[in-house]
Amino acid sequence: GTKHSKHNHSVEIVNSDPLIIKTVIKFLRALKVNEEKIRLKLKIPVICELRAKMFWSKLLDLPLTSFNKSLVPLGKGKSKYSYGTLTIKYNSKKLLEEFDKRTQGLFGKL
User: Fold this and answer.
1) Phi and psi torsions of 100, nearest 5°
2) C-alpha distances in angstroms, 59 versus 42, 68, 83?
3) If DSSP codes are grouped into helix, strand and coil, which group holds residue 16?
4) Across the chain, how many H-helices and E-strands are there?
5) If you write DSSP's letter for every residue of 57-101 in order, what string do you get?
6) Cα–Cα distance between 15 and 110 in angstroms, integer?
7) Cβ atoms 42, 49 nearer than 8 A
8) Cα gap 75→77, rounded to integer Å
């Protein structure tokens, strides 16, 4: 899923599929964003947190310092992927406008 708030000018992408997450990071890099401003939030049971952070960090070639505090859900989440659900967040009015422009081309005005 994707969400953004026009109030705080941030773009958030939420998914658990490594291919989709990697594609989003590739898109951000193509736009030459400041990678230090990329924030990641992981939703995963605490027992798997470090392993999952290491997986995403290596896959995306981003440092562990990119991660904010993880969200630990109660109960068992259902996903076919074992590395949790990752949220990519980037605060930028310019990126928000570019993202809106490009996604309208793909999906039309929702």
Assistant:
1) -60, -45
2) 14, 17, 11
3) coil
4) 3, 4
5) HHHHT--GGGB-PPB--SS----S-SS-EEEEEEE-HHHHHHHHH
6) 20
7) yes
8) 7
In eight-state DSSP terms, residue 48 is G
Residue-level pLDDT, tens digit, the chain, 110 residues? 555 445 578 888 999 999 999 999 998 999 899 999 999 999 987 778 889 999 999 999 999 999 998 887 766 655 556 789 999 999 888 888 877 787 776 666 55
The distance of Cα 92 from the centroid of its chain, to the nearest Å, equals 14
* 2-5 and 10-15 strand pairing: antiparallel
Return the closest-CA partner of residue 89 out of 31, 12, 33: 12
